[in-house]
Sequence to fold (277 residues):
Amino acid sequence: AKQSGRATYRFFTPDMDARAQARTRLAGELSDALAHEEFSLVYQPMIDVESGRVAGAEALLRWQNRYIGAVGPDQFVPLAEEMGMILPIGRWLLGAACREAAGWRDLELGPLKVAINVSARQVQQTDIAELVRAALAESGLAPELLTVEITESLILTSGAEVAAKLQRIRDMGAHIAVDDFGTGYASLSYLKQFPVDILKIDRTFVADALTNPDDARLIEAIIGLGHSLNMKVVGEGVESLDQMVFLAERGCDLVQGYRFSPPLAADRFREFVKGHR
Ligand code: C2E
Ligand code: CA
Ligand code: CA
Ligand code: CA
Fold:
């Protein structure tokens, strides 16, 4: 309550203030979103380059708020991290994704893998290995069908404790992927200290692969690096046939992107798989 009323109020309502209010609003809605069942998962097909078959999907979080409407993960995930909300959300989505993927068995189209995204905070501040163990046990999903995607920045900022958590997940038979690889300058020695099975080439490199020789060489280097460390390499954000061919010719193992499919609702993903056997 400022003393001088209206004039002061006007002084305090520039854009900055509106943004802060919008953010407070978003935070308020976010804190109730789990209870109101406003989250869902969509599944983006991942294609095996050699066979052309669907190898599985990456589960991506969606938030549909009854007042605000659809809010993108790039907007609400960072906020959920700050609020600590990412921990309960993460627990929910781990269970939901494992249950859904366990149901893909019934499609009888061969084993399909599911990849989930975990935030740095989720790995650092929870017993993530125990959460994974519980989700696998409860869903009956075979551990080797689950991949946990971590960020390159997690590797850069974490030490032995985080590496040990990831190792426990790996010991169960699940896989660890490094998301957006190439953007965070993780050095070779860092990568060697972490139990990693998969590198996902950031989509910004794929986008410029055919026009920028630096990006092309970077992709070749990442594929070479991954394979020399016995890892699989995934090309993300593949939008054109030319990008697909570029990656295939360089030995990339898996691809995903709008060229094949956008992220799909669960039932649409099942239809996609049936249509691509
Ligand atoms: P990400 O993990 O790199 O996810 C891939 C993003 O690229 C997705 O955006 C996907 O829709 C988009 N994408 C897929 N194919 C193409 C393509 O061909 N071209 C282009 N331009 N984009 C493509 P989305 O779903 O908006 O997710 C954005 C980011 O939000 C994710 O990036 C991830 O960092 C975060 N996120 C999403 N779901 C979760 C989650 O469940 N947990 C956590 N912690 N983070 C999540
Ligand atoms: Ca990801
Ligand atoms: Ca990514
Ligand atoms: Ca990303």
Notes: The pocket of calcium ion (ligand 3) is lined by residues 179-180, 200, 236 (CB under 6 Å).
